[in-house]
Amino acid sequence: MDAFLFLKAALIGLSIAAPVGPIGLLCIQRTLAHGARVGFASGLGAALADGVYGAIGAFGLTAITRFFVTLATPLAICGAVFLGWMGVRLMRAAPAGAPTSLPDAAGSWRAFASVFVLTIANPMTIVSFIAVFATLAGDMAGTRPAAVVMVLGVLTGSALWWLALAFGVAAIRHRVGSRALQAINRSAGLFLLGFAAWQALGILR
């Protein structure tokens, strides 16, 4: 039963991570520019944020849920500003040569942290997980072990998606020249600015 519950949760984590959005674009761009390690680290930041919100939903932490819902507008504003800032940085990036991996782990940690903050600043993530875990309440049977299995499954499914995406993109990254990479940077930056503007419009409405 635990194995089935874990598999179901992993599929949920995979389905939440898979749709291409600003996080997916960042993972692809960073993989092309710096390699699979940095791209996967970016994805793990999103996976951990999903796990945090998943734990809140799985364990029924009502007070924390209300806290995040109360901060929905400030979090959305911070997320829009952060997205816009990252979009401007990408549009201004001008690689001088072929893509190369970063020489140390600092770049991976920065990539991880930036995407974690970006994902945790999206209040819709917690709403999604609360809805998901509400439909699976019967499977969890209100027990802590089942809730732990669910959270671990979500983390695993999300992480597997980012791993597959990063290494899939890395397989073709050396075929991408500097001009193509610059065009990708600018396109990704433009898309991030578009996502930021869309989120800002949602706040104003």
From TrEMBL:
<dbReference type="Pfam" id="PF01810">
    <property type="entry name" value="LysE"/>
</dbReference>
<feature type="transmembrane region" description="Helical">
    <location>
        <begin position="146"/>
        <end position="172"/>
    </location>
</feature>
<feature type="transmembrane region" description="Helical">
    <location>
        <begin position="184"/>
        <end position="204"/>
    </location>
</feature>
<feature type="transmembrane region" description="Helical">
    <location>
        <begin position="67"/>
        <end position="88"/>
    </location>
</feature>
<keyword id="KW-1133">Transmembrane helix</keyword>
<protein>
    <submittedName>
        <fullName>Lysine exporter protein (LYSE/YGGA)</fullName>
    </submittedName>
</protein>
<keyword id="KW-1003">Cell membrane</keyword>
<keyword id="KW-0472">Membrane</keyword>
<keyword id="KW-0812">Transmembrane</keyword>
<feature type="transmembrane region" description="Helical">
    <location>
        <begin position="6"/>
        <end position="28"/>
    </location>
</feature>
<dbReference type="GO" id="GO:0015171">
    <property type="term" value="F:amino acid transmembrane transporter activity"/>
</dbReference>
<feature type="transmembrane region" description="Helical">
    <location>
        <begin position="40"/>
        <end position="61"/>
    </location>
</feature>
<feature type="transmembrane region" description="Helical">
    <location>
        <begin position="109"/>
        <end position="134"/>
    </location>
</feature>
<dbReference type="InterPro" id="IPR001123">
    <property type="entry name" value="LeuE-type"/>
</dbReference>
<dbReference type="GO" id="GO:0005886">
    <property type="term" value="C:plasma membrane"/>
</dbReference>
